[in-house]
Design a protein that fits this description.
Its EC number is 2.3.3.13. One of its GO terms (molecular function) is 2-isopropylmalate synthase activity. By secondary structure, the chain is α/β, with parallel strands linked by helices. Helices cover 40% and strands 20% of the residues. It has 16 helices and 16 strands. The chain has an eight-stranded parallel β-barrel with strand order 2-3-4-5-6-7-8-9, surrounded by eight helices. It is globular, with a radius of gyration of 25 Å. The structure holds acetyl coenzyme *A (ACO) and 3-methyl-2-oxobutanoic acid.
Length: 512
């Protein structure tokens, strides 16, 4: 017998982007959406068009350019939100409007300040309004898991009668536990008489670390769609992690009689891309995609794995596209081996991109004995995912120690001109950032700084993420180098280049 299909609704670009400190520009969103299509998600929730002009344009660009998945846009239940969502997604081959209103007493009383009857009426009106535009309308009763079950069922039934083709039950604040949520979904299935006319979906948050468990329990009790985000990012503690959900169903198909259409071999690459573009690093022990997920440290485990991999590995890393490497790349390697490795890691490059990445690879190989897969990913990110570089770091000099004031001198080209500036700081990184500020004269503040080692060992590559705030927008920059101060300078300049690219040089607020 064929197993039942579970639809994967990806909300990395909407709820995922609601993670504090994350702000993606249009190109970054398009890049992620393109990869999500390659991953094989069924629906991409591309954004919340009423939220800003930028989000509207991003949803529209994705709707215009990304083929395969349904493209959804979120809207409050108000007609103007729904109109704006439709304006953004209507160009998609398969557009969806996703509209929501809260049904829990706590949200209705304090947030919406509306009685139950009005919420019921608005839900019906909103869904009907959306149905004028499209026959793919999703309705979410927000905070469903804390709603009165009878009232919730009344709203869901009315929404389906009004034309909702998907009904999504959110555990908005991650309050539910698996047995309870499973029973909740079963009760909705039992009590809502027209439930078979719709796809029943769930959207779980991870406040108690139970989002994936709750989603699995929901599926076992009749949910057909799961809303997920790559790496589990999202509001507060995040959403159901796509990679965990998919691999749980895949690995435990002996227990769960369900399948998705996800190409699992694209999981690792998607996870890396989302982490890199959002600036949200992945904890080492994160299931499926964390650095340690397939690493074995202790002797008994290593012995077991050497004798038979499955003694301590429940899935093959190749299933998520993590290719184990036998060819050692170093300074004596040529283009063929390098290109093959890129392809094995899932990167498709044209000749120009290959040349750029190869030049960077050679210069890294001069400084490092062995180039690992992580190094190659870092090279691709730095060399291929590029935005125009208004500012380029030409040289830098740092003077630092425990008894002197840290001082940095930087030489940066601003278009054609080389500008040199020096500054003192609290530490060498602060000094470098201040010197860069003197060159660029752009009014930014550093919101977040993170340094991590991409690879281990003395000659490890340092990866820096810097988030800069400029006029209420956040710009994320990344830099890599074997020198951590240079990586910091590059990350800072990368964020500034994104800022200049988006804001436009003529509109920049300069420090006077
Ligand atoms: C559970 C979720 O994740 S829902 C999605 C959450 N995501 C976001 O909020 C990100 C995007 N949001 C935004 O950019 C802004 O909040 C906007 C543009 C939507 C609204 O901005 P503002 O008009 O300034 O309102 P603000 O955000 O301060 O307050 C929200 C308003 O929406 C109302 N509201 C909340 N949910 C809904 C809903 N589903 N349907 C209708 N109205 C709603 C609130 O009651 C409040 O109304 P009030 O102004 O009459 O008190
Ligand atoms: C809009 C809905 C689905 C949501 O994000 C939530 O309830 O968490």
């Amino acid at each position: 017998m064929v197993s039942k299909r579970v639809y994967i609704f990806d909300t990395t670009l909407r709820d995922g982007e609601q993670s504090p400190g994350v702000s993606l520009n249009i190109n970054e969103k398009l890049e992620i959406a393109t990869q999500l299509a390659r991953l094989g998600v069924d629906i991409i929730e591309a954004g919340f068009p009423i939220a800003s002009e930028g989000d509207f344009q991003a949803v529209r660009t994705i709707a215009e350019n990304v083929e395969g998945p349904t493209i959804a846009a979120l809207a409050r239940i108000d007609p103007q939100d729904i109109d704006r969502a439709w304006e953004a997604v209507k160009v998609a081959k398969k557009p969806r409007i996703h509209t929501f209103i809260a049904t829990s007493d706590i949200h209705m009383k304090y947030k919406l300040q509306l009685p139950r009857e009005t919420v019921l009426e608005l839900a019906v009106k909103g869904v009907k309004h959306a149905r004028q535009y499209t026959d793919d309308v999703e309705f979410s009763p927000e905070d469903a898991s804390r709603s009165d079950l009878d009232f919730l069922c009344q709203v869901v039934e009315a929404a389906i009668d009004a034309g909702a083709t998907t009904v999504n039950i959110p555990d908005t604040v991650g309050y539910a536990t698996p047995e309870e949520f499973g029973q909740f979904i079963a009760a909705i299935r039992r009590k809502v008489s027209n439930i078979d006319r719709t796809i029943l979906s769930v959207h779980c948050h991870n406040d108690l670390g139970l989002a994936v468990a709750n989603s699995l329990a929901a599926i076992a009790n009749g949910a057909q769609q799961v809303e997920c985000a790559v790496n589990g990012i999202g509001e507060r503690a995040g959403n159901t992690a796509l990679e965990e959900m998919v691999m749980a169903l895949y690995t435990r198909k002996d227990f769960y009689d369900y399948h998705t259409e996800i190409n699992t071999k694209e999981i690792y690459r998607t996870s890396k891309q989302v982490s890199s573009l959002t600036g949200m690093s992945i904890q080492s022990n994160k299931a499926i995609v964390g650095r340690n997920a397939f690493a074995h440290e202790s002797g008994i485990h290593q012995d077991g794995v050497l004798k038979e991999r499955t003694t301590y590995e429940i899935m093959n890393p190749e299933m998520i596209g993590l290719v184990q490497n036998n060819i050692v790349l170093g300074k004596h390697s040529g283009r063929h081996a390098f290109r093959q490795r890129l392809e094995e890691l899932g990167f498709e490059v044209d000749k120009t991109e290959l040349d750029k990445a190869f030049t960077r690879f050679k210069s890294m190989a001069d400084r490092k004995k062995e180039i690992s897969d992580k190094d190659i990913e870092a090279i691709v990110e730095a060399e291929i995912r590029r935005i125009p570089e208004k500012f380029q770091l030409e040289h830098m000099h740092i003077s630092s120690g425990n008894r002197i004031v840290p001082t940095a001198t930087v030489g940066i080209t601003d278009g054609e001109t080389l500008i040199e500036e020096a500054a003192c700081g609290e530490g060498p990184v602060d000094a470098v950032f201040k010197a860069i500020d003197k060159v660029t004269n752009i009014k930014v503040s550093l919101m977040y700084y993170n340094l991590s080692a991409v690879t281990g060992g003395k000659d490890a590559i340092g990866e820096v993420t810097a988030k800069l705030k400029y006029a209420d927008q956040v710009y994320i920059g990344r830099g890599i180098s074997t020198d951590i101060i240079e990586a910091s300078a590059k990350a800072y300049i990368n964020a500034l280049n994104k800022l200049v690219f988006e804001v436009g040089e003529d509109d920049l607020q300069r420090i006077v």
